[in-house]
UniProtKB/TrEMBL annotation, chain A:
EF-hand domain ranges (all copies): 70-105, 115-150
Gene Ontology MF annotations: calcium ion binding; magnesium ion binding
Protein name stated in the entry: EF-hand domain-containing protein
Species the sequence originates in: Meleagris gallopavo
InterPro entries, alphabetized: CIBP (IPR051433), EF-hand-dom_pair (IPR011992), EF_Hand_1_Ca_BS (IPR018247), EF_hand_dom (IPR002048)
SUPFAM superfamilies, sorted: EF-hand
From TrEMBL, chain B:
Name of encoding gene: TMC6
All residue ranges annotated as the TMC domain in the record: 558-664
GO cellular component, one term: plasma membrane
Membrane topology of this protein: Multi-pass membrane protein
An annotated Gene Ontology molecular function: mechanosensitive monoatomic ion channel activity
Family note: Belongs to the TMC family.
Transmembrane stretches, start-end: 266-288, 351-370, 441-465, 477-504, 524-547, 567-592, 620-645, 666-691, 741-758
Keywords, alphabetical: Membrane, Transmembrane, Transmembrane helix
Cellular compartments annotated: Membrane
Annotated region (Disordered), positions in chain: 1-31, 56-83, 119-144
Pfam family, one: TMC
Protein name from the UniProt record: Transmembrane channel-like protein
């Protein structure tokens, strides 16, 4: 068999697996994470718009959260996760929702409106360089580049990734396809 | 030429002919060209919106972006009356490249196309004659004919594939790795790449049935790759404590994890030291044991005091012989290998001992500097001190934490930290009045005076106590006391020092609570500073006492073994007190909080304090390596036990710390503290001992010499006598090590490199400031253009 056909044949079982077992809910390990719905939304490529993750979307997610992913990829996906209204920039509403997710859902845990106002004004002052009232992707990446902790906090780690993978019913299998090899959580070329 | 880029003005010919900028007389022409531009863009936008709807059906919200951007950009829509061009302007703004890159796949592909094109075109630029005069200089980087901004998605993909083919394969796979697209799209890109790569000539070749050889080869390659990936996975899983560390990070976050990673690093250092010493010194001496007076029977107390039957054992310096082991010229020693062996390699024990200790310190130095460099690279960024709040909210959420309770705790911590940061900022914006500031400064000064006073007090106390113990032992030596009293005297000084080291940090915590520093980070640094000062000053005093031979000793004639025993006792006492501190500080405190005070909060894991204890223990080991070669083994055992005990206590009793903790930054600080006072201090102590101290006459591998450093000199002289041809070998120590000019030269070079790097950093900071100014100016330009467009639109509407 010529090489291309063989590669296509190998990837077919992968697609079958993906179609049989989509993951409609976020993975069990992230049930408590306040960003779970945004993560599903960002990584989902389903045409129905129901935010379901196929196996490949799941792999994309693990790849983006792995330790081997570059800061570029992480900041790109982080930007999309934080962009709650999907308009391509982080404006005031997005930042407000982000802070509310971070501080938790309880009433006493939230910041007061004066504090929120002060916080958002400060954040925009620090990161909005062209002063248009929003943070676009480049400005976000500029802020992230100054934070050495981002790469380690926006990560899940290998053992967790394999545990998560197997507990969600997919199983970390080794697929001998020439193009994309599954290695648990290494960055996927 | 398909379309002109959006920012080129189509200025009519009569203004361009004289080459000047359009004068105010020609504003009518300018206005009309702007109107045409807007209409054109609106139709393009309508077309683009349809395209994007086909690509991705989930973007209805992108069509009507919220009103806020325009409000803050200074174009307030008047109450109840919106500018008629408002919706169009918003649509145009929503499709600006800087907005679309954040949400659309097509934009990402375009961006990577341009990046890859720039990679290819670094040396060659399109000539200026091909571009119109009004094109901006940055346009010269683009190929206007194939500008992909308005192409379809499929076209964009094929353009990107074409660009990628022109790159070398390694760079190509690197670019593919870094593109933030989904797996499907990367696969389709790869398919396009492989289709394009096989040219018509070769395609014929690849479509014929492959020969069995090629098929075998492919199978082998695939099989090898599979095996390699499985092997990699095994390696990752086989790392020690892999699952335990993931458990800890899942519950407590990266901050507590940094303590355990530090412990793992120290364990690695000690294992390397131990292996070096084992192979080159200990094992060989064990194979050829010297004749020793009748060994004392083993009682359990030796594990605590290191004296008794351990005194004349491999553990200490005094056991090691000063002769050449297995020397064929000497008479065969008793218990040696059979004389029928063909070759007998002589082994110069004093030389081996000294060089192994030297190699040990050298290897540790290199490893430490490499860890510091690695850690510094990860944690330092230019300009990371500004923009704290933005960095905080974007990188505060630790995705490693998964348990429900821990997530809730993390949210609470983040909330508290944000509130503290905001309060601090409010305080800074309205500074304190003069009496308040004076009061604050007085409190700070008092606290520092108190801290330094306690350090001095502790040092004096330790000094007098050791003098007392010395006197007691001398009196005891005359009269034979009970065994317990003798052992007790030996243990008294380590007990007192460890007690002070355990209690004083709690006192410093109380002092910090009274002092109330401005920021929680300053609190952590101040606490580390005070604790470190106390520990290092006490250790300095002890070193002075050891070198001046004023110590409590069980082996009177061999002062090195005495020092080794003392250090062994200090290490063991440190371990016992760490256990007691864990037990009382964490377990007992949690029981009190739960049962008596009925509070839900548990004691916090004090990371700084625990790391400083580890650094102190490691300093003791490094100080003692020369005198007790098996001390790294003792430290390895201690660290292994400490890991499991600390982990169990953490899981059962503690909660994650509520103070903010920049894990990567603090890891760098701790490795630096491990290098700078701890390792360098120990290295200076050992170097001083080797260069200046006279070894004892009756024991150890260096007996009879003036200083330990004479050993290699004696050896070099022997070599020169036996073979005059290698006399040059003696020049190395003379000119490199003893001559100070070479050392000055080395230091000068290092200082020059540091100065150069500082200047480079300063230049980079200046460039960042300039670029930020430029971007702010572009933002102003954008606002100006939008206002002008609105004015023109108004004029047009009024005229019409």
């Amino acid at each position: 068999m010529p090489k291309e056909q063989r590669e296509n044949a190998c990837s077919v079982p992968l697609l079958l697996v993906a179609q049989c077992q989509p993951c409609p809910e976020p993975s069990p390990s992230w049930q408590a994470n306040p960003f779970q719905h945004r993560i599903c939304h960002v990584f989902s490529t389903s045409v129905d718009g129901d935010d379901s993750l196929s196996f490949e979307d799941f792999l994309d997610m693990l790849s983006a959260f792995s330790d081997a992913a570059t800061s570029d990829i992480k900041s790109n996906y982080a930007f999309r996760i934080f962009d709650f209204n999907d308009d391509g920039v982080l404006d005031r509403k997005d930042l407000e929702e982000l802070v509310n997710c971070l501080t938790g859902q309880g009433e006493e845990a939230r910041l007061s409106s004066a504090e929120m106002e002060q916080l958002i004004c400060n954040v925009l002052e620090e990161s909005d360089i062209d002063k248009d009232g929003t943070i676009n992707l480049s400005e976000f990446q500029h802020v992230i580049s100054r934070s050495p902790d981002f790469v380690s906090t926006f990560a899940v780690g290998r053992a967790r990734a394999l545990c998560v993978c197997s507990s969600s019913g997919f199983g970390a299998g080794w697929l001998p396809s020439g193009n994309s090899s599954v290695q648990g959580a290494r960055s996927i070329p | 030429m398909s379309q002109l880029p959006a920012f080129t003005l189509r200025v009519p010919e009569n203004t361009e002919s004289d080459g000047q900028e359009p004068s105010p007389d020609n504003e009518g022409a300018l206005h009309s060209s702007f109107c045409e531009l807007i209409e054109e863009q609106s139709s393009l936008v309508a077309g683009a919106i349809e395209m994007e709807l086909q690509e991705r059906s989930r973007e209805p919200s992108a069509l009507l972006p919220p009103l806020d951007p325009m409000a803050t950009a200074g174009l307030e829509p008047k109450q109840g009356e919106q500018h008629p061009g408002y919706a169009t302007t918003l649509r145009i703004l929503a499709n600006m490249p800087s907005h679309t890159i954040g949400r659309s796949r097509g934009a990402i592909i375009s961006q990577y196309y341009n990046r890859t094109a720039r990679l290819r075109r670094r040396s060659s630029r399109p000539s200026l004659q091909q571009l119109s005069h009004t094109a901006r200089p940055s346009l010269r980087q683009y190929d206007l004919e194939s500008d992909p901004t308005n192409a379809t998605l499929a076209d964009k993909q094929s353009l990107l594939a074409k660009e990628l083919l022109s790159l070398p394969p390694a760079q190509r796979s690197q670019v593919l790795l870094e593109v933030p697209l989904s797996l499907e799209e990367k696969r389709s890109l790869r398919r396009q790449l492989s289709q394009r790569r096989s040219t018509p000539g070769l395609r014929v070749h690849s479509s014929e049935p492959t020969s069995p050889c090629a098929w075998c080869q492919d199978c082998i390659v695939l099989g090898c790759r599979t095996l390699w990936y499985r092997f990699l996975a095994l390696i990752h899983a086989a790392q020690p404590w892999h699952y335990a560390l993931k458990q800890i990070s899942g519950r407590f976050g990266s901050s507590v994890l940094s303590y355990f990673l530090f412990l793992k690093t120290l364990l690695l250092f000690n294992i390397i030291s131990f292996l070096l010493l084992l192979v080159f010194v200990v094992a060989l001496q064990a194979a050829y044991p010297p004749a020793v007076a009748s060994p004392r029977p083993f009682t359990g107390l030796e594990l605590l005091t290191g004296a008794g039957s351990f005194t004349h054992s491999l553990l200490y310096y005094g056991y090691y012989s000063n002769t050449t082991l297995n020397d064929p010229s000497a008479s065969s020693p008793s218990g040696s290998t059979s004389p029928s062996r063909a070759t007998q390699l002589p082994y110069n024990m004093p030389l081996a001992y000294m060089f192994t200790i030297g190699a040990n310190f050298f290897a540790t130095c290199i490893l430490l500097m490499y860890s510091m460099y690695h850690s510094f690279l990860k944690s330092y960024r230019v300009g990371s001190s500004t923009g704290v709040l933005a960095i905080k909210i974007f990188s505060a959420w630790d995705f490693k934490v998964v348990q429900r309770h821990s997530v809730k705790l993390q949210s609470e911590n983040i909330c508290t930290q944000l509130k503290e940061l905001l309060a601090e900022q409010r305080l800074r914006s309205c500074p304190l009045s003069l009496p308040q500031r004076l009061r604050h400064i007085t409190v700070l000064l008092l606290a520092w005076l108190l801290a330094l006073g306690t350090v001095l007090g502790c040092v004096v106390a330790v000094y007098y106590f050791s003098e007392l113990m010395h006197m007691v032992q001398q009196k005891q030596g005359a009269a034979a006391g009970s065994v317990w009293l003798q052992e007790g005297v030996l243990l008294a000084l380590p007990f007192v020092v460890s007690l002070l080291n355990t209690l004083m940090p709690h006192f410093y915590n109380l002092l910090a609570a009274w002092e109330k520093q401005d920021s929680p980070e300053a609190e952590v640094y101040v606490a580390i500073c005070r604790n470190l000062l106390l520990k290092m000053v006490v250790l300095g005093l002890l070193c002075y006492q050891w070198l001046s031979r004023r110590l409590v000793c069980s082996a009177k004639e061999c002062w090195e073994t005495c020092v080794g025993q003392d250090l062994y006792r200090f290490v063991v006492m440190d371990f016992i007190f760490t256990l007691l501190d864990t037990g009382f500080g964490e377990l007992l405190w949690r029981l009190i909080l739960e049962k008596k005070l009925k509070s839900k909060r548990r004691p916090e894991f004090d990371i700084a304090q625990n790391v400083l204890e580890l650094i102190y223990g490691q300093t003791l080991t490094w100080l003692g390596v020369l005198f007790a070669p098996l001390l790294p083994a003792v430290q390895v055992v201690k660290l292994l036990l400490l890991f499991y005990i600390k982990k169990t206590s953490l899981m059962q009793n503690c909660q994650s710390p509520s103070k903010p903790w920049q894990a990567s930054h603090m890891s760098t600080v701790f490795i630096t503290l491990l290098f700078f006072p701890s390792f360098l201090g120990a290295a200076i102590f050992v170097s001083y001992t080797i260069w200046w101290e006279k070894p004892s006459e009756t024991c150890g591998p260096f007996r009879g010499l003036q200083t330990i450093y004479q050993t290699p000199k004696v050896w070099v002289e022997l070599l020169e006598e036996s073979n005059p041809n290698i006399a040059w070998f003696g020049w190395i120590p003379q000119y490199l090590v003893e001559n100070t000019v070479f050392l000055f030269f080395l230091t000068g070079m290092v200082l020059a490199v540091i100065y150069f790097n500082i200047q480079v950093l300063r230049g980079q900071r200046q460039i960042i400031c300039l670029l930020e100014e430029q971007i702010a100016n572009e933002g102003e330009d954008k606002k100006f253009l939008i206002q002008r467009i609105h004015c023109i639109y108004d004029d047009k509407v009024h005229c019409a």
